[in-house]
Design brief:
Layout lengths: L2 H8 L6 H8 L3 H18 L3 E4 L1 E6 L25 H13 L4 E6 L5 H17 L5 E5 L5 H9 L4 E3 L7 H7 L8 H13 L3 E4 L2 E2 L6 H14 L3 E2 L2 E2 L18 H18 L4 E2 L3 H6 L3 H7 L4 E2 L6 H4 L15 H14 L3 E2 L8 H6 L1
Parallel strand pairs: 1-11, 1-12, 2-3, 3-4, 4-5, 5-6, 6-8, 7-9, 8-10
Helix pairs in contact: 1-3, 2-9, 3-10, 4-5, 9-10
The protein binds 5'-deoxyadenosine (5AD), iron/sulfur cluster and FE2/S2 (inorganic) cluster.
């Protein structure tokens, strides 16, 4: 397709589905135009800063069985763990002392009262330890409205729940067909999070088996329509001990999956100028400079891993996940260098909340 057509589309205020498909299908020259536009918008609306969210992979125990995920309940090869409260508080202390102004607590999905209470308790302890000055994000799956409210009251302010695929037919192909993996429940959970006052983050995997370019265009329109505050997207990466592994020969090449992921980040930045967009670890798995490249074309959030190293091997959602042996301080140094290479600055000591969330209020 010729560059003039891409230029013409990029000048529009809003993109419709067929324009998004054209953009997602653009060749290398078109891609450069998209990236340049996204970089310009990023600079203008969210600036040059990248914010740290220290990631604690709290537990790999999961009641679900998503077909893509390495820590699905059905994977019996894994040692299951949860990080002890003391270990979490150690990680929080590290984050606090190093001026990471925010944390993400992520785990497999569990709904038992014991689990819910352990998180509430942890939130209270983190807040007491840091004078309520730590921005806390949760990524703990679908929960009831009551639980979302409880955790919000205990100090959580942001929540990440990827829709994974906004096309319900595709969603069905990626999950078991039962009540614990219901598309409508997931969608409803996103609405509940909004209702409970959270900054809401969602996202999808890119390059999944059965996924089309059309699906990805719809995903972008879904984010816009839902009016999300934050996004986390990255390439789908196969994992040997999962049902989707059998389709590995049908996947796009890793390079193409990476390129498409980068385009998705750039296009979302153009469409939703002031949201927070993460440079995800999965981007780096497929390209050594993946996170730097994402920062250049739109990402402004990065999640240095704070999980105690002894647990990291057991939280492999996909193959070749980086940062398995690196201590928190090594990831910090590594990311500092990477962010500087991208020409960005780190917003130490700042929450870096979604501007979009603030602008909506
Ligand atoms: N490849 C890429 N991302 C994955 N996730 C889970 N499994 C994979 C995989 N095989 C993502 C999902 C989930 C997030 C925590 O990790 O999108 O929401
Ligand atoms: Fe569990 Fe999340 Fe993995 Fe699904 S993607 S199996 S909910 S950890
Ligand atoms: Fe962990 Fe680079 S971010 S080693």
């Amino acid at each position: 397709m010729d560059d003039n057509r891409i230029k013409e589309i990029l000048q529009k205020e809003e993109f419709n589905k067929s324009e998004l498909i054209e953009l997602l299908n653009s060749d290398d020259a078109g891609k450069k135009l998209i990236f340049a536009k996204a970089a310009e918008i990023k600079e203008k609306y969210v600036g040059n800063k990248v914010y740290f969210r220290g990631l604690i992979e709290f537990s790999n125990i999961c009641a679900k069985n998503c077909y893509y995920c390495g820590i699905r309940g059905g994977n019996k090869k894994l040692q299951r763990y949860y990080v002890t409260e003391n270990e979490v508080l150690e990680a929080v202390k590290y984050a606090w002392e190093n001026k990471y102004a925010s944390l993400v607590i992520q785990a497999g999905e569990r709904k038992s009262k014991k689990f819910v209470d352990s998180i509430t308790n942890l939130l209270q302890k983190i807040n007491a330890m840091t004078n309520n000055e730590m921005g806390i994000t949760l990524s703990l799956g679908e929960q009831s409205e009551e639980t979302f409210m409880k955790w919000h009251a205990a100090g959580a302010r942001r929540y990440l729940l990827r829709i994974e695929a906004s096309n319900r037919e595709l969603y069905k192909k990626l999950h078991p067909n039962n009540k614990t993996h219901d598309f409508d429940t997931r969608l409803n959970a996103l609405h509940l999070l909004r209702k409970c006052g959270y900054q809401v983050g969602t996202g999808v995997m890119i390059g999944l088996p059965f996924q089309t370019i059309e699906d990805l265009a719809d995903d972008l329109l879904f984010f816009k329509e839902f009016d999300i505050d934050m996004a986390g997207m990255g390439p789908y990466i196969e994992h040997e001990d999962t049902p989707l592994y059998q389709y590995r020969d049908q996947l796009m090449s890793k390079k193409d999956r990476f390129d498409l992921s980068l385009k998705m980040v750039a296009l979302l930045r153009i469409m939703m100028k002031d949201i927070n967009i993460a440079a995800t670890t999965a981007m780096q798995t497929l390209d050594k400079m993946g996170r730097e490249k994402a920062i250049k074309v739109g990402s402004n959030i990065i999640m240095p891993n704070l999980t105690p190293v002894k647990y990291r091997e057991s939280y492999l959602l996909y193959e070749d996940k980086p940062c398995i042996d690196e201590e928190a301080s090594e990831c910090k140094n590594c990311l500092e260098a990477r962010i500087h290479i991208s020409g960005a600055e780190i917003g130490y000591g700042e929450w870096g909340d979604s501007k979009h969330f603030k602008n909506r209020r």
